Amino acid sequence: MSEVEEQSPTGVSRRTVAKAMAWTVPAIAVAATVPLAAASDRTCLPIDGITDPRVEIGVCDTCGNPGGSNKGCASNLQHYWQTPIYLNNPGPDELVFHVTSFQLNGIEYGAAGGAFGLYLATGTSSDDCTVVDQTCTTCTFTDNPNSFTCMPPAMARTKFWILSNDFGNSSSSTIRIEWELINAATCAPVTSGVSGAIFSSAPNNCTGNE
Q1: Are residues 62 and 147 in contact, defined by beta-carbon separation less than 8 angstroms?
Q2: Would residue 28 count as lying in a domain?
Q3: Which domain holds residue 41?
Q4: How many Cβ atoms from other residues are within 10 Å of residue 58's Cβ?
């Protein structure tokens, strides 16, 4: 878990929350590594841990960048995976969605490991994206400031993208994403979960200019 702190307007830390709670999440088996390339016969076996109806992670709709620039949401990364996330908030309290871990083949490429971050989807293509809203909270995330987004009250189902960091090669076959929901006003954890998948062939390539 990451450290989450509530900040006063002066920037002085008033409360540390995350270390007071911890969650147990299931492990995901590691399959053989396969090349990252478009494959029409790819098979994805989703493996979910603790779930919440406010969070849907489309692990089997993950796309990959095999090395070309300007693919997906990031034009300056050469090798990364990009996974769609659908968030909704029917309640009256403002929430924060925070990615705490992004793993490929058991290696950390997210949150504390340096996740590239979250993006708001603005269209149907994997390169239709923009920066997320992070203005709803004074909570700070010491693992990675790009790993969270606001979920305002009565928020309808909205699509986002989570990107791994550049992992230096174009092969992988398992994915695991851990996340938490936090009260935006108090910084108190609300719930957490994990979603993952094993690919028998590589995800499709992300779209974008070569």
Answers
A1: no
A2: yes
A3: 4-204
A4: 15
Provide the whole-model pTM.
0.75
Cβ proximity of 81 and 175 under 8 Å: yes
Output the tens digit of pLDDT for each of the chain's 210 residues: 444 444 444 443 333 333 333 323 333 333 323 333 333 345 778 877 777 999 999 988 888 877 655 678 877 777 788 899 999 999 999 999 998 888 888 777 666 554 578 999 999 888 899 989 999 999 988 777 888 999 999 999 999 998 887 776 555 578 888 899 999 999 999 999 988 888 776 677 888 654
**Does residue 209 belong to any structural domain of this protein?**
no
Question: Which residue from 151, 157, 159, 83 is spatially nearest to 116, judged by alpha carbons?
Answer: 83
Number of domains in the chain: 1
The token duo for 134 is: 């992070």
